[in-house]
């Protein structure tokens, strides 16, 4: 009687038949995983705790200025930080604020006063006032996080 190897006979050692169709299953699974990876790769599934950066820039032509800002109930005072000729400016950077109010007053003989608010590098609000003959100027600006999104929908 010839010696028959259990593996070559189509029966595994434990007595059950070998499934030839099962050999392709790992390849199919790899293709499914690869396809899912391609589909979901562009999605950012992580929870981001990156803080919203709010930057306030104040520019005055003709006179120095001072003012205050209220960021979620925390009031801070500021004044112009730099001067180039008759142009005075200041930049304030905040993180994780829901609402900020800025109030600015210039000295005598100011010709213009501008406040710009940026959210993550994009300008979201701007306000200005002018005087033809130069005088004390006042400006108050309030920004609530996301208000520019609701204005786009209208």
Features:
single chain, 154 residues, five-stranded antiparallel beta sheet, four-stranded antiparallel beta sheet
Molecular structure report:
With 154 residues, the protein is mostly beta strands. It is built from two helices and nine strands; from the N terminus they run H-E-E-E-E-E-E-E-E-E-H. It has helices at 25-40, 147-153; strands spanning 53-61, 65-71, 74-79, 82-84, 87-95, 99-106, 110-119, 122-135, 138-144. It has a five-stranded antiparallel sheet with strand order 4-5-1-7-8, with no helix packed on it. Strand 4 and strand 5 form a beta hairpin. The chain is elongated and about 85 Å long. 16% of the residues are buried. The model is unreliable at 44-48 (pLDDT under 50).
Strand residue content: over 45%
- Strand order, biggest sheet? 4-5-1-7-8
Question: pLDDT average, as an integer?
Answer: 80
Q: Based on DSSP secondary structure assignment, what is the total number of beta strands?
A: 9
Cα distance spanning the termini: 90 Å
Cα shape: elongated
Order of helices and strands: HEEEEEEEEEH
Radius of gyration: 33 Å
**Sheet of most strands:** 5 strands, antiparallel
Query: Helix fraction?
Result: 10-25%
Number of helices: 2
Low-confidence stretches: 44-48
Structural class: mainly beta
């Amino acid at each position: 009687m010839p010696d028959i190897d259990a593996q070559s006979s189509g029966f595994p050692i434990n007595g059950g038949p070998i499934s030839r169709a099962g050999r392709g299953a790992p390849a199919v699974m790899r293709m499914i995983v690869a396809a899912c990876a391609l589909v979901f790769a562009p999605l950012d599934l992580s929870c981001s705790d990156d803080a919203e950066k709010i930057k306030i820039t104040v520019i005055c032509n003709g006179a120095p200025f001072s003012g205050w800002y209220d960021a979620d109930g925390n009031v801070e005072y500021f004044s112009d930080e730099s001067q180039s000729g008759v142009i005075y400016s200041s930049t304030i950077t905040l993180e994780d604020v829901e609402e900020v109010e800025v109030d600015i007053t210039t000295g005598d003989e100011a010709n213009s006063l501008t406040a710009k608010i940026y959210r993550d590098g994009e300008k979201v609000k701007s306000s200005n006032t002018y005087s033809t003959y130069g005088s004390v100027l006042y400006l108050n600006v309030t920004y609530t996080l996301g208000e520019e999104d609701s204005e786009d929908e209208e």
